[in-house]
Design goal:
globular, 9-stranded mixed β-sheet, binds zinc ion, alpha/beta, 13 helices
Length: 416
Protein backbone atom coordinates (compact mmCIF):
# COMPACT_ATOMS: atom_id res chain seq x y z
CA UNK A 1 0.00 0.00 0.00
CA UNK A 2 1.35 3.39 -0.80
CA UNK A 3 1.49 6.44 1.41
CA UNK A 4 -1.48 8.08 -0.36
CA UNK A 5 -3.85 5.19 0.22
CA UNK A 6 -2.86 4.85 3.86
CA UNK A 7 -3.14 8.60 4.51
CA UNK A 8 -6.62 8.49 3.00
CA UNK A 9 -7.77 5.92 5.55
CA UNK A 10 -6.06 7.76 8.40
CA UNK A 11 -7.63 11.08 7.42
CA UNK A 12 -11.09 9.54 7.21
CA UNK A 13 -10.78 7.94 10.66
CA UNK A 14 -9.17 10.89 12.42
CA UNK A 15 -11.69 13.34 10.96
CA UNK A 16 -14.56 11.09 12.02
CA UNK A 17 -13.31 10.98 15.62
CA UNK A 18 -13.17 14.79 15.72
CA UNK A 19 -16.91 14.85 16.44
CA UNK A 20 -16.53 13.39 19.94
CA UNK A 21 -15.77 16.53 21.87
CA UNK A 22 -17.43 18.34 24.76
CA UNK A 23 -16.32 21.68 23.29
CA UNK A 24 -17.41 21.85 19.63
CA UNK A 25 -15.68 24.73 17.86
CA UNK A 26 -13.07 25.06 20.61
CA UNK A 27 -10.80 22.08 20.06
CA UNK A 28 -11.27 18.55 21.29
CA UNK A 29 -12.22 17.91 24.90
CA UNK A 30 -12.65 14.23 25.61
CA UNK A 31 -12.16 13.62 29.29
CA UNK A 32 -12.15 10.07 30.68
CA UNK A 33 -15.38 8.32 31.69
CA UNK A 34 -17.59 10.84 29.91
CA UNK A 35 -20.20 10.42 27.20
CA UNK A 36 -17.71 11.79 24.64
CA UNK A 37 -15.24 9.07 25.67
CA UNK A 38 -18.00 6.43 25.40
CA UNK A 39 -18.99 7.58 21.90
CA UNK A 40 -15.39 7.69 20.71
CA UNK A 41 -14.81 4.21 22.13
CA UNK A 42 -17.82 2.84 20.27
CA UNK A 43 -16.55 4.40 17.05
CA UNK A 44 -13.00 3.07 17.53
CA UNK A 45 -14.40 -0.41 18.23
CA UNK A 46 -16.26 -0.31 14.91
CA UNK A 47 -13.08 0.84 13.12
CA UNK A 48 -11.21 -2.09 14.64
CA UNK A 49 -13.94 -4.58 13.73
CA UNK A 50 -13.96 -3.25 10.15
CA UNK A 51 -10.32 -4.27 9.63
CA UNK A 52 -10.92 -7.70 11.16
CA UNK A 53 -9.73 -7.24 14.74
CA UNK A 54 -11.41 -9.14 17.54
CA UNK A 55 -12.52 -6.31 19.84
CA UNK A 56 -13.14 -6.10 23.56
CA UNK A 57 -13.17 -3.46 26.25
CA UNK A 58 -11.24 -4.24 29.43
CA UNK A 59 -12.09 -3.47 33.07
CA UNK A 60 -10.29 -0.11 32.89
CA UNK A 61 -12.20 0.99 29.80
CA UNK A 62 -9.24 0.36 27.47
CA UNK A 63 -10.15 -0.82 23.96
CA UNK A 64 -8.32 -3.93 22.85
CA UNK A 65 -8.29 -5.16 19.25
CA UNK A 66 -6.67 -8.52 18.57
CA UNK A 67 -5.27 -9.84 15.30
CA UNK A 68 -4.63 -13.46 16.08
CA UNK A 69 -1.32 -14.98 15.03
CA UNK A 70 -0.72 -18.53 13.89
CA UNK A 71 1.13 -19.25 17.16
CA UNK A 72 -0.70 -17.36 19.93
CA UNK A 73 1.61 -18.99 22.50
CA UNK A 74 4.37 -16.59 21.37
CA UNK A 75 4.56 -13.29 23.28
CA UNK A 76 2.41 -10.69 21.53
CA UNK A 77 3.30 -7.34 20.00
CA UNK A 78 1.24 -4.42 21.29
CA UNK A 79 0.78 -1.04 19.64
CA UNK A 80 -1.47 1.91 20.37
CA UNK A 81 -1.90 5.06 22.41
CA UNK A 82 -4.65 6.94 24.25
CA UNK A 83 -8.11 8.22 23.21
CA UNK A 84 -8.68 10.87 25.90
CA UNK A 85 -7.57 14.47 25.42
CA UNK A 86 -6.76 17.53 27.48
CA UNK A 87 -9.34 20.33 27.66
CA UNK A 88 -9.50 22.19 24.31
CA UNK A 89 -6.84 19.90 22.85
CA UNK A 90 -6.22 18.64 19.32
CA UNK A 91 -7.25 15.73 17.11
CA UNK A 92 -3.91 13.96 16.72
CA UNK A 93 -2.57 13.54 20.26
CA UNK A 94 -3.16 9.90 21.19
CA UNK A 95 -5.45 9.00 18.31
CA UNK A 96 -2.54 8.88 15.88
CA UNK A 97 -1.19 5.81 17.67
CA UNK A 98 -4.53 4.01 17.73
CA UNK A 99 -5.49 4.73 14.11
CA UNK A 100 -2.02 3.74 12.87
CA UNK A 101 -2.33 0.40 14.67
CA UNK A 102 -5.70 -0.15 12.99
CA UNK A 103 -4.31 0.71 9.54
CA UNK A 104 -1.35 -1.62 10.00
CA UNK A 105 -3.79 -4.43 10.82
CA UNK A 106 -5.77 -3.55 7.69
CA UNK A 107 -2.62 -3.67 5.56
CA UNK A 108 -1.53 -7.02 7.01
CA UNK A 109 -4.96 -8.48 6.18
CA UNK A 110 -5.12 -6.90 2.75
CA UNK A 111 -1.77 -8.42 1.86
CA UNK A 112 -3.00 -11.82 3.05
CA UNK A 113 -0.19 -12.07 5.61
CA UNK A 114 -0.64 -14.32 8.65
CA UNK A 115 1.47 -13.13 11.56
CA UNK A 116 2.95 -15.71 13.89
CA UNK A 117 2.48 -13.58 16.99
CA UNK A 118 -0.72 -12.03 18.20
CA UNK A 119 -0.88 -8.33 17.37
CA UNK A 120 -2.82 -6.21 19.86
CA UNK A 121 -3.95 -2.70 18.97
CA UNK A 122 -4.84 -0.83 22.14
CA UNK A 123 -6.64 2.42 22.93
CA UNK A 124 -5.72 3.54 26.45
CA UNK A 125 -8.15 5.34 28.72
CA UNK A 126 -7.11 8.47 30.63
CA UNK A 127 -3.48 9.01 29.77
CA UNK A 128 -3.60 12.76 30.23
CA UNK A 129 -4.78 12.80 33.85
CA UNK A 130 -6.76 15.94 33.04
CA UNK A 131 -9.89 15.07 34.99
CA UNK A 132 -8.51 13.45 38.16
CA UNK A 133 -4.99 14.91 38.26
CA UNK A 134 -3.48 11.45 37.78
CA UNK A 135 -2.46 10.16 34.35
CA UNK A 136 -1.53 6.81 32.73
CA UNK A 137 -4.68 5.24 34.18
CA UNK A 138 -5.25 2.75 31.34
CA UNK A 139 -1.61 1.82 30.88
CA UNK A 140 -0.99 1.47 34.61
CA UNK A 141 -4.11 -0.68 34.88
CA UNK A 142 -2.76 -3.24 32.42
CA UNK A 143 0.44 -3.22 34.46
CA UNK A 144 -1.58 -3.87 37.63
CA UNK A 145 -0.43 -0.58 39.18
CA UNK A 146 -3.77 1.08 40.00
CA UNK A 147 -5.18 0.27 43.44
CA UNK A 148 -8.77 0.38 44.74
CA UNK A 149 -7.56 3.08 47.10
CA UNK A 150 -6.48 5.20 44.11
CA UNK A 151 -10.02 4.96 42.71
CA UNK A 152 -11.44 6.56 45.84
CA UNK A 153 -8.61 9.01 46.52
CA UNK A 154 -8.58 10.90 43.22
CA UNK A 155 -11.54 13.16 42.47
CA UNK A 156 -12.45 15.61 39.73
CA UNK A 157 -13.34 19.26 40.25
CA UNK A 158 -16.97 18.28 41.00
CA UNK A 159 -15.75 15.92 43.72
CA UNK A 160 -16.56 12.80 41.66
CA UNK A 161 -14.06 10.01 42.38
CA UNK A 162 -12.61 7.73 39.70
CA UNK A 163 -14.64 4.98 41.41
CA UNK A 164 -17.91 6.86 40.91
CA UNK A 165 -16.98 7.93 37.39
CA UNK A 166 -16.21 4.34 36.40
CA UNK A 167 -19.62 3.16 37.64
CA UNK A 168 -21.39 5.99 35.85
CA UNK A 169 -19.52 4.99 32.68
CA UNK A 170 -20.70 1.37 32.97
CA UNK A 171 -17.59 -0.29 34.43
CA UNK A 172 -17.24 -2.30 37.63
CA UNK A 173 -14.44 -0.64 39.66
CA UNK A 174 -13.98 -3.73 41.87
CA UNK A 175 -13.06 -5.69 38.74
CA UNK A 176 -10.13 -3.41 37.84
CA UNK A 177 -7.44 -5.93 38.91
CA UNK A 178 -8.70 -8.22 36.09
CA UNK A 179 -7.39 -5.65 33.59
CA UNK A 180 -3.79 -6.52 34.53
CA UNK A 181 -1.83 -8.45 31.93
CA UNK A 182 0.53 -11.35 32.43
CA UNK A 183 3.63 -9.52 31.17
CA UNK A 184 5.26 -12.77 30.07
CA UNK A 185 2.67 -12.88 27.28
CA UNK A 186 3.90 -9.57 25.81
CA UNK A 187 7.00 -9.27 23.64
CA UNK A 188 7.06 -5.47 23.22
CA UNK A 189 5.08 -2.22 23.12
CA UNK A 190 5.37 0.25 20.26
CA UNK A 191 3.72 3.68 20.56
CA UNK A 192 3.29 6.02 17.61
CA UNK A 193 2.58 9.61 18.61
CA UNK A 194 2.85 13.17 17.40
CA UNK A 195 5.95 14.88 18.76
CA UNK A 196 4.05 17.74 20.46
CA UNK A 197 7.14 19.94 20.27
CA UNK A 198 9.07 21.84 17.56
CA UNK A 199 12.25 19.74 17.25
CA UNK A 200 11.21 17.37 14.47
CA UNK A 201 9.25 19.98 12.49
CA UNK A 202 12.17 22.41 12.53
CA UNK A 203 14.66 19.73 11.54
CA UNK A 204 12.55 18.96 8.46
CA UNK A 205 12.80 15.21 9.11
CA UNK A 206 9.84 12.92 8.48
CA UNK A 207 10.17 10.60 11.48
CA UNK A 208 11.47 10.82 15.03
CA UNK A 209 12.89 7.64 16.54
CA UNK A 210 12.69 8.05 20.29
CA UNK A 211 15.75 6.78 22.14
CA UNK A 212 14.76 7.89 25.60
CA UNK A 213 11.87 9.42 27.53
CA UNK A 214 12.86 12.09 30.01
CA UNK A 215 12.56 11.71 33.76
CA UNK A 216 10.35 14.18 35.63
CA UNK A 217 10.23 15.59 39.14
CA UNK A 218 7.37 17.87 40.17
CA UNK A 219 6.99 19.87 43.35
CA UNK A 220 4.65 22.33 44.95
CA UNK A 221 6.69 24.76 47.05
CA UNK A 222 4.99 26.79 49.78
CA UNK A 223 6.83 29.81 51.19
CA UNK A 224 5.34 31.30 54.35
CA UNK A 225 5.98 34.88 55.44
CA UNK A 226 3.79 37.33 57.32
CA UNK A 227 1.04 39.59 56.03
CA UNK A 228 1.50 43.26 56.93
CA UNK A 229 0.48 46.71 55.74
CA UNK A 230 2.34 47.50 52.51
CA UNK A 231 2.69 51.16 53.42
CA UNK A 232 3.56 51.19 57.10
CA UNK A 233 5.90 48.18 57.39
CA UNK A 234 9.53 49.23 56.73
CA UNK A 235 11.52 47.11 54.28
CA UNK A 236 13.76 45.68 56.98
CA UNK A 237 10.82 44.72 59.21
CA UNK A 238 8.72 42.63 56.86
CA UNK A 239 8.68 38.90 56.07
CA UNK A 240 7.69 39.04 52.42
CA UNK A 241 6.86 35.61 50.99
CA UNK A 242 6.85 36.98 47.42
CA UNK A 243 10.36 38.36 47.77
CA UNK A 244 11.72 35.00 48.91
CA UNK A 245 9.79 32.93 46.34
CA UNK A 246 10.56 35.27 43.44
CA UNK A 247 14.30 35.18 44.11
CA UNK A 248 14.28 31.40 43.84
CA UNK A 249 11.88 31.17 40.89
CA UNK A 250 13.99 33.61 38.88
CA UNK A 251 17.06 31.38 39.07
CA UNK A 252 15.47 28.05 38.09
CA UNK A 253 15.43 28.53 34.27
CA UNK A 254 19.15 29.39 34.18
CA UNK A 255 20.02 26.31 36.21
CA UNK A 256 18.29 24.22 33.53
CA UNK A 257 20.11 26.10 30.73
CA UNK A 258 23.47 25.49 32.40
CA UNK A 259 22.82 21.74 32.38
CA UNK A 260 22.12 21.56 28.63
CA UNK A 261 21.31 18.00 27.51
CA UNK A 262 17.75 19.15 26.79
CA UNK A 263 17.11 19.75 30.47
CA UNK A 264 14.06 21.95 31.13
CA UNK A 265 12.63 23.47 34.29
CA UNK A 266 9.33 25.29 34.56
CA UNK A 267 7.35 27.23 37.12
CA UNK A 268 3.91 27.30 35.54
CA UNK A 269 1.81 28.00 38.60
CA UNK A 270 2.14 30.73 41.22
CA UNK A 271 -0.44 31.62 43.84
CA UNK A 272 -0.08 34.54 46.27
CA UNK A 273 -2.05 34.83 49.50
CA UNK A 274 -3.86 36.88 50.53
CA UNK A 275 -3.20 38.48 47.13
CA UNK A 276 -3.83 42.18 47.80
CA UNK A 277 -1.99 45.09 46.18
CA UNK A 278 -1.50 46.79 49.54
CA UNK A 279 -0.65 43.69 51.59
CA UNK A 280 2.76 42.11 52.10
CA UNK A 281 2.23 38.48 51.01
CA UNK A 282 1.82 35.92 53.74
CA UNK A 283 2.17 32.87 51.53
CA UNK A 284 3.29 31.94 48.04
CA UNK A 285 2.74 28.58 46.40
CA UNK A 286 4.58 27.76 43.21
CA UNK A 287 5.12 24.70 41.06
CA UNK A 288 8.40 23.29 39.81
CA UNK A 289 8.57 20.79 36.93
CA UNK A 290 12.10 19.59 36.08
CA UNK A 291 12.78 17.18 33.22
CA UNK A 292 15.91 15.70 31.75
CA UNK A 293 17.18 12.55 30.08
CA UNK A 294 19.89 12.57 32.72
CA UNK A 295 18.52 11.97 36.21
CA UNK A 296 21.60 13.56 37.82
CA UNK A 297 20.61 16.90 36.23
CA UNK A 298 17.15 16.65 37.79
CA UNK A 299 18.54 15.78 41.21
CA UNK A 300 21.06 18.61 41.05
CA UNK A 301 18.51 21.27 40.08
CA UNK A 302 16.16 20.12 42.85
CA UNK A 303 19.07 20.31 45.33
CA UNK A 304 19.90 23.84 44.12
CA UNK A 305 16.27 24.92 44.61
CA UNK A 306 16.33 23.60 48.17
CA UNK A 307 19.64 25.29 48.97
CA UNK A 308 18.46 28.61 47.53
CA UNK A 309 15.20 28.38 49.51
CA UNK A 310 17.26 27.74 52.66
CA UNK A 311 19.33 30.85 51.99
CA UNK A 312 16.64 33.35 50.96
CA UNK A 313 14.12 32.20 53.60
CA UNK A 314 16.75 32.46 56.35
CA UNK A 315 17.58 35.95 55.16
CA UNK A 316 14.06 37.39 55.50
CA UNK A 317 12.65 35.10 58.18
CA UNK A 318 10.21 33.13 56.05
CA UNK A 319 9.88 29.33 56.04
CA UNK A 320 9.18 26.88 53.26
CA UNK A 321 7.90 23.43 52.49
CA UNK A 322 8.58 21.44 49.32
CA UNK A 323 6.05 18.71 48.45
CA UNK A 324 6.97 16.15 45.84
CA UNK A 325 4.08 15.44 43.43
CA UNK A 326 5.77 13.21 40.88
CA UNK A 327 9.09 11.43 40.46
CA UNK A 328 9.79 9.35 37.37
CA UNK A 329 13.28 8.39 36.29
CA UNK A 330 14.30 8.65 32.62
CA UNK A 331 13.88 5.49 30.62
CA UNK A 332 15.86 4.24 27.63
CA UNK A 333 13.85 2.64 24.86
CA UNK A 334 14.72 -0.63 23.15
CA UNK A 335 17.97 -0.42 21.16
CA UNK A 336 17.04 -3.53 19.23
CA UNK A 337 13.74 -2.08 18.05
CA UNK A 338 15.35 1.31 17.29
CA UNK A 339 17.82 -0.47 15.00
CA UNK A 340 14.92 -2.19 13.21
CA UNK A 341 13.06 1.12 12.86
CA UNK A 342 16.18 2.77 11.39
CA UNK A 343 16.55 -0.08 8.91
CA UNK A 344 12.88 0.23 7.88
CA UNK A 345 13.00 4.03 7.54
CA UNK A 346 16.15 3.82 5.42
CA UNK A 347 14.69 1.11 3.20
CA UNK A 348 11.63 3.24 2.52
CA UNK A 349 13.74 6.35 1.94
CA UNK A 350 12.21 8.34 4.81
CA UNK A 351 14.32 10.89 6.60
CA UNK A 352 14.53 10.51 10.37
CA UNK A 353 16.35 11.62 13.46
CA UNK A 354 16.99 10.02 16.81
CA UNK A 355 15.52 12.10 19.61
CA UNK A 356 14.41 12.38 23.19
CA UNK A 357 10.77 12.60 24.24
CA UNK A 358 10.18 15.48 26.62
CA UNK A 359 6.59 14.38 27.23
CA UNK A 360 5.62 11.27 29.19
CA UNK A 361 3.16 9.13 27.16
CA UNK A 362 1.79 5.68 28.02
CA UNK A 363 5.17 4.41 26.82
CA UNK A 364 6.85 5.98 29.86
CA UNK A 365 4.82 3.82 32.23
CA UNK A 366 5.13 0.70 30.08
CA UNK A 367 8.86 1.05 29.29
CA UNK A 368 9.63 0.61 32.99
CA UNK A 369 8.67 -3.07 32.67
CA UNK A 370 8.46 -4.03 28.97
CA UNK A 371 10.64 -3.66 25.89
CA UNK A 372 9.27 -0.43 24.38
CA UNK A 373 9.91 1.95 21.53
CA UNK A 374 8.27 5.16 20.28
CA UNK A 375 8.01 6.70 16.84
CA UNK A 376 7.11 10.39 16.37
CA UNK A 377 5.53 12.28 13.48
CA UNK A 378 6.20 16.05 13.24
CA UNK A 379 3.81 18.53 14.86
CA UNK A 380 3.30 21.62 12.67
CA UNK A 381 5.10 24.54 14.34
CA UNK A 382 5.50 22.28 17.38
CA UNK A 383 1.98 23.11 18.54
CA UNK A 384 0.02 20.57 20.61
CA UNK A 385 -2.52 20.41 23.45
CA UNK A 386 -4.38 23.17 21.61
CA UNK A 387 -6.99 23.30 18.84
CA UNK A 388 -4.47 24.17 16.07
CA UNK A 389 -2.53 20.95 16.67
CA UNK A 390 -1.73 19.56 13.21
CA UNK A 391 0.27 16.74 11.68
CA UNK A 392 0.27 15.97 7.95
CA UNK A 393 -1.61 12.75 7.18
CA UNK A 394 1.22 11.71 4.85
CA UNK A 395 3.67 11.92 7.74
CA UNK A 396 1.39 9.81 9.92
CA UNK A 397 1.09 7.27 7.11
CA UNK A 398 4.89 7.04 6.82
CA UNK A 399 5.14 6.29 10.54
CA UNK A 400 2.43 3.63 10.14
CA UNK A 401 4.28 1.96 7.26
CA UNK A 402 7.48 1.82 9.33
CA UNK A 403 5.43 0.29 12.16
CA UNK A 404 4.17 -2.31 9.69
CA UNK A 405 7.77 -3.14 8.74
CA UNK A 406 8.78 -3.43 12.40
CA UNK A 407 5.91 -5.78 13.20
CA UNK A 408 6.79 -8.07 10.29
CA UNK A 409 10.45 -7.91 11.33
CA UNK A 410 9.60 -9.12 14.86
CA UNK A 411 7.76 -12.34 14.07
CA UNK A 412 10.72 -14.67 14.55
CA UNK A 413 11.81 -16.26 17.86
CA UNK A 414 10.40 -15.31 21.23
CA UNK A 415 13.28 -12.91 21.99
CA UNK A 416 14.61 -11.76 18.66
ZN1 LIG B 1 -0.66 11.95 24.02
Amino acid sequence: MDVEKMSGYLQKNLEALHQYTATPGAGTTRLPFTKEARSAVNHIKSMMAEVGLKVREDEAGNIIGLLEGTDPSLPALVTGSHFDTVTNGGDFDGLMGITCGIEVARLIREKGIRLKRNLIVIGFHDEEGMRFGTGYFGSKSILGQVTQEDLHRYKDKDNVSIYEAMKEYGLVPEDLPKAAWDLKTIRAFIELHIEQGPVLFQSGKELGLVECIVGIQRYIVTVRGRSDHAGTTPMDMRIDAVEAAAKVIAKIPDWAREKGDGTVATTGYVKVLPGGMNIVAEEVQFSVDVRSRNNANILDIVAKIRAELDTVCARNGSTYQMDNKLTITPVNLSEGMLAKLEKAARARGYSYRLMVSGAGHDALAIAQVLDTVMLFAPSKDGRSHCPVEWTEYRDIAKAALVLYDLILDMQEGPHD
